[in-house]
What does this fold into?
Amino acid sequence: MQRSRTIFTAAALSTAAALALTSCASGGGGGDAIDPEADITEQSLTVGIWADYYPEDIAERFEEETGVPVTIVNHATNEEAVAKVTAGGDSGIDVLFVSGQYAQALNEQGLLEPLEKSLIPNESNLYAEASELAYDEGNQFSLPYAWGTTGLCYRSDLTGYEPTSWMDLLEPTPEVSGKTTMLSTERWLALPALKALGYSVNSTDEAELEEVKEQLLETKSTLLAYDDTTFYDKLITGEASLVEAWDGWCNYAIAESPETKFVVPEEGSDLWVDSMTVLKTSQNKEAAMAFLNFVLEPEQGAWVAENILYKVPNEAAMDSLDPALFEQFPNMAMTPEELAEQETIIDLGEYSTEYTRLVTEVTAG
Amino acid sequence: MSSRSTAPSPGARLRRGLAAAPFLAPGGLLLIAFVFIPIALVTVYAFFQRGRFGGVVFDFTLDNFVRLADPLYLGVIAQSIGVGLMVTAIALLLGFPTAWVITRLPAKWRTIALIAVLLPFWTNFLIRTYAWILLFNNAGWINKTLGVFGIEPLDLLYSLPAVVVGLVYMYLPLMILPIYSSLDRMDPLLGEAATNLGSSPFRVFRTITLPLAIPGILTGCVFVLVPAMGNFVIPELIGGGKTVLIGNLVRDQFLKARDWPFGAALTLVLTVLLLILLAVQSRVSARVTEGPGRRG
It folds into this structure.
């Protein structure tokens, strides 16, 4: 009796503590309104960005230029970044890098500050196409940092032919069967089948997703693996000969084995964008705008292109690159017109759970 | 039992309780912070609705538990239990003889053998998992060696058997160590006495060694079964993402689907399974160690 009462008390106490912890998850106010005349040298910045996705000395360079000290906090995924800024209160982050559809979702929640363009004159370095992105027309609350598409990355010496269609991946020839991989992140796992069947990458049609599921279940038996992180290694070792890949990551395989090629299938693909945003909770909004402006300088964009091998929407940066880079990595030479022909992935709100379910049904099936 | 075990007066009990408090407080706080609060959070979250960006919206619902009954998720849970049991059985078959052999080694070699069992545990788990990939992939050492003899590369990776092998490797030390410790505590004179009285080695094993090792075996089984069901890295890396275990489902709810309440409900399933296993284990070991004859 004594013991069970103690356990009950402990359980009650910890439940109360748990509720107390979660109830402070709401609330948190906004920062001040923007004052273009503010002295930013009085401010300091915290920037949330993906690890290994920026020049190592970016903080020093920005401080040298503007006098604003910068602290960088890394995140590994969009979900982690979003969790940080929606966990409640002030995350302490001023500038957050997330993919376009996540910026859209954050903005719909009222978490992003509208950009003060008078403080970001370098926006003029961007291609015209970079201000017509479906998740944020006119770059109201986000500015693109890097962009690209998804396609087929393959070893022409192993496939023996040049794939041109998503069907080359979904229904591989006997020689390639068992040597293909698909991305495992939900929207990209569904993408090849959606596009091959002629549907939108943002489809919210139940019958369409059902067809996609049938196709993906059929494809599963021909796959080596679902792989988001090491598919280019599998190409290099020759374990895989044809994989679904993000363009930039395919370049990592091209760098190691020159027989590797990248193609955007004829049925079309997506346009993904990694973007920069300023949080409403920021107390340093003027410095944050100055940081966005700084990143849009051609030097920073050129660094990303040369080191991460991602395309950047920064015309001035792309023009400054050594043409040898385009020769070695042909997909770096894709024009903004070619990219803009692809479909931009947007956030599907509540419907996104259907994609989670689809992926679970396929991978567990 | 001596007279000291008679109940003390209430005053004495209180005084003794107060004196013990400073010693119990650190452990108690640790338990509350790292066991009770997290489990309470998981339990509470499982009854609410998902927030759009993860987290929870405090509207009470039982939907998360209704969803668990969906054949899709029941299938994953069943598959996890199946894989977990298979891993445990293989680990037991490999672990028991290993532990037994170690107890028979001279003292110096015993230490070396135990360090050898433990050594992999001090290496990062991801590095060890990638080592399996390097060993087993089509361009890996095993297939390269086979290739020298003109044998076609074997598809060793990215399948359910590969996941089972990876999990057995990962958790085998957790089976060996508890069995070793229960065998090590066994009085060797018991076996000698039985042999002197004419028992065959098999009979000694069946009637003395095995029963005395049962607490260790049960502990080892729980230690292996529970993490094997919850592991999500090995199915993803060695299984090529084509096998989904309950650990993958939980991880995906938090990191991909942003559905914390359903993730919490799935976690509760694992927790309840664990509690049942622990209850069975302690019940059985108590019966074995006390023995039916000595009770009462």
In short: Chain A touches chain B through 48 residues (CB under 8 Å).
